[in-house]
């Protein structure tokens, strides 16, 4: 069992009634609860959602607070400070004054810093410190106004050959307040991407998706991500720039295996973080298996850190991999499937 869950269970007697578990680890915590606790889960990670769904848990996947009434909430500290602010604020909106809110996290994950974010909402107290984790208790004592999800987004501008784009990025989304270096290196090459059905794997705030939609109104973009906040950000970015809604299809995915088939192109600045951990599985699978989602003559475009072995993985699948550029620590990689004569 995850150490954070173990620490929470050490203080089990504090829990009662309808308890909302926010961002919990995928372990057997729920099985430890007796009938005095009616537990629900809120997650924005689609893989976690599928796990809890398989456990037949009451689980909500999304960027907004789940429907229902709750007596208590347990927040498992996320990586992003801004996302934690969003979570605490929403808990304070939806739970009654005097309700107990618990914050649990690893010391290396910044739980002591995170505990300071509780202070504006009432009296907080450290309940436990064990397994390299801490558990804090907050008694809500404040009146908090509800804020629309869009009010939490940060915006920044990205230039394209067809005019500027305003990017909307919600808390916790990769590169929330500025364009990251990898995507900046990638953008000039998007004009070379074949038009048609294009999947943006790991769409984040929708920079690449919106750029491709802006370049060519005939492009149909499938924005794919594991994170509900990323998917909501991409939708906001399209709306902010008045891009045609028919150009965009948003889909939560557990990996590239959930992508549509017969795509003209797959583009990606692939993700490699899972919480505070580094995890290359999703991006390595993209290199190994994306070919099966492409039409004959379909293209794969990836930007990645120069030190990663993606060119080798792509070559093993596609037979070739072209390095379009190598600058500022990033490579833009290109491969295509063999063109079928009958299809051309």
Alpha carbon gyration radius: 22 Å
Counting helices, strands and paired strands, the structural category is alpha/beta
Number of H- or I-type helical stretches: 9
Kindly report the spatial arrangement of strands forming the biggest sheet: 3-2-1-4-5-7-6
Alpha carbon gap, first and last residue: 54 Å
**How much helix, percentage-wise, in residues?**
10-25%
| CATH architecture classification of the largest domain | 3-Layer(aba) Sandwich
SS elements, strand count: 18
Secondary-structure element pattern, one letter each: HEEHEEHEHEEEEHEHEHEEEEHEHEE
Q: Spans of 5+ residues with little confidence (pLDDT < 50)? A: 273-278
Average pLDDT confidence is 94
The CATH topology of the largest domain is Rossmann fold
Give the overall shape, derived from the CA principal axes.
Answer: elongated
Largest sheet: number of strands, sense, barrel closure: 7 strands, mixed
Write out the CATH superfamily name of the largest domain. Vaccinia Virus protein VP39
Strand percentage, roughly?
25-35%
Number of domains: 2
CATH domain class of the largest domain: Alpha Beta
Describe this structure in words.
It is a single chain. The chain has 344 residues and is α/β, with parallel strands linked by helices. It has 2 domains: 138 residues, Vaccinia Virus protein VP39 (Rossmann fold, 3-Layer(aba) Sandwich), CATH 3.40.50.150; 187 residues, Rossmann fold (3-Layer(aba) Sandwich), CATH 3.40.50.150. The chain has 9 helices and 18 strands. It is elongated. About 2% of the residues have low confidence. Belongs to the methyltransferase superfamily. RsmC family. Specifically methylates the guanine in position 1207 of 16S rRNA in the 30S particle.
């Amino acid at each position: 069992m995850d150490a954070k869950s173990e620490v929470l269970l050490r203080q089990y007697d504090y829990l009662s009634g309808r308890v909302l578990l926010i961002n919990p680890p995928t372990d057997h915590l729920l099985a430890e609860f007796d009938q005095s606790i009616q537990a629900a889960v809120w997650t924005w990670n689609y893989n976690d959602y599928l796990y809890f769904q398989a456990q037949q848990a009451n689980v909500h996947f999304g960027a907004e607070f789940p429907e229902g009434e709750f007596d208590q909430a347990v927040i498992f500290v996320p990586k992003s400070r801004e996302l934690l602010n969003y979570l605490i604020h929403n808990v304070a909106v939806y739970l009654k004054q005097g309700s107990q809110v618990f914050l649990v996290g690893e010391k290396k994950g910044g739980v002591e810093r995170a505990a300071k974010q509780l202070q504006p909402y009432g009296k907080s107290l450290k309940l436990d410190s064990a397994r390299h984790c801490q558990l804090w208790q907050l008694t809500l004592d404040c009146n908090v106004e509800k804020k629309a999800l869009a009010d939490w987004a940060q915006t920044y501008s990205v230039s394209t050959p067809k005019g500027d784009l305003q990017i909307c990025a919600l808390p916790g989304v990769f590169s929330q307040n500025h364009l990251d270096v990898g995507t900046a290196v990638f953008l000039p090459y998007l004009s070379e991407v074949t038009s048609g059905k294009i999947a943006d794997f790991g769409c984040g705030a929708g920079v690449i998706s919106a750029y491709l939609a802006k370049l060519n109104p005939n492009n149909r973009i499938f924005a794919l991500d594991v994170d509900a906040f990323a998917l909501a950000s991409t939708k906001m970015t399209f709306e902010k720039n008045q891009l045609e809604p028919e150009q965009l299809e948003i889909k939560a995915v557990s990996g590239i295996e959930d992508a549509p088939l017969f795509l003209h192109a797959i583009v990606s600045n692939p993700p490699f973080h899972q919480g505070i951990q580094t995890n290359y599985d999703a991006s390595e699978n993209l290199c190994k298996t994306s070919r099966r989602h492409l039409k004959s003559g379909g293209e794969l475009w990836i930007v990645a850190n120069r030190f990663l072995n993606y060119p080798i993985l792509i070559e093993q699948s596609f037979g070739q991999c072209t390095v379009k550029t190598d600058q500022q620590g990033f490579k833009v990689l290109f491969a295509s499937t063999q063109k079928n004569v009958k299809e051309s």
